[in-house]
C-alpha cells in the first residue's frame, strides 16, 4: 500500500495536501481506496469561511463527502461487502439509536457522524474507512462518478419527497446550481409534468434546459418577487403546486411563497441568513406549507436503482476533473463558480470514470 494523500483544511483559507496514516477498519467498517470525490459548495464554504453556522473548523479536517471508492479491506463483522466491491459512500452515519434513528429520520440525529462537518473527517483522500452499513455496492452499469453524485442527487430526492412531488405535479425550482439541477432531475423522474427553473445566470440555465427543464427563466436582482412570481405563473399556465427554493436568497424565498399555489408546498433547500423577511401571512392564509430539509435519509438504495435503470442521468453534471494532487486548483475552479460539478480523481491506477 502507498501513502494516504489527503486534502486537509487547517483553518479558514488554509487548505493543504498532506500525507496522513492509512486508517485501520474496525469490525463493522470497510477500508476504501477512494476513486471519485465531488467538490461541494459546503467544502468551499468551510475553506473560505472556516465555518457554516454553528459548525466551526477548530482542528485540521479532511474535506469531501460526495464519494465512491473500492473496498480494499473488510472488518471482521462485515458480511455484505468484499474486497474489490465498488461502493458509493453515504457520508452521514448515526452514532446513537435515538428517537430520530428509530423513526427512520436519522439525518436529524444531533450526534450523527458526517463527513467533512467539523470535527468529522471527510473522504477526499486516497484511503478512507467508513461504516460498512453506509457503503452501497454499485451495479456494474453505474460508474464511480455516478456513485459519487448520489450524494447531491440525494439532496434532490429528499427535497422532492418532502415536497410530495408525484405524477402531474408542476414545480418551480429556484436556482440552477448543482442542487437546483438535481432537484430538477428528480422532480422530472418522480413524474412532475412541468418544471420551471430560475437563475441569475443564463449560462447556468443552459445546463438546466439540457437536463430537461421545461421553462428556464433568467431573473435579475432588480426584479420584485411578485414580478417573478407572475412570470412563472404565465409560463406554467398556472401557479406551481410545489416550489423548491435552492438559493437561500431572501427575495427568492419571497418569490417561492408568492408563486406557490394555495394548498401547495414550499421546500427550503438553500441556506441563507438565519433571519429572513418573508410573506408568512400570505403563506398562512393560503395554506401553503413551508418545509425545511436537512441533508437526506434513506436515499442511496433508491438513487442506485434510478441510475442503474437509466431513469435519471447525472453524468452531464460533471464538467471538470482533476487528479487528487491538483486539489487546490480544483477548489479554485469551484470557488469561481466555473462549470457545475468538479470531480477529484483519487485513484491513479484506475482511469475509468
Ligand atoms: Zn454536498
UniProtKB/TrEMBL annotation:
SMART domains noted in UniProt: PKS_ER
Gene Ontology molecular function: any one: zinc ion binding
Pfam families linked: ADH_N, ADH_zinc_N
Domain Enoyl reductase (ER): 13-344
Keywords carried by this UniProt record: Cell projection, Cilium, Flagellum, Metal-binding, NAD, Oxidoreductase, Zinc
Cofactor annotation: Zn(2+)
Localization per Swiss-Prot or TrEMBL: Cell projection, Cilium, Flagellum
GO CC, alphabetical: motile cilium
Highest taxon above the source species: Eukaryota
GO BP field: sorbitol catabolic process
PROSITE patterns from the UniProt entry: ADH_ZINC
PANTHER family attached to this UniProt entry: SORBITOL DEHYDROGENASE (PTHR43161)
Similarity comment: Belongs to the zinc-containing alcohol dehydrogenase family.
Protein name as it appears in the record: Sorbitol dehydrogenase
Native source species: Muraenolepis orangiensis (Patagonian moray cod)
Lineage: Eukaryota, Metazoa, Chordata, Craniata, Vertebrata
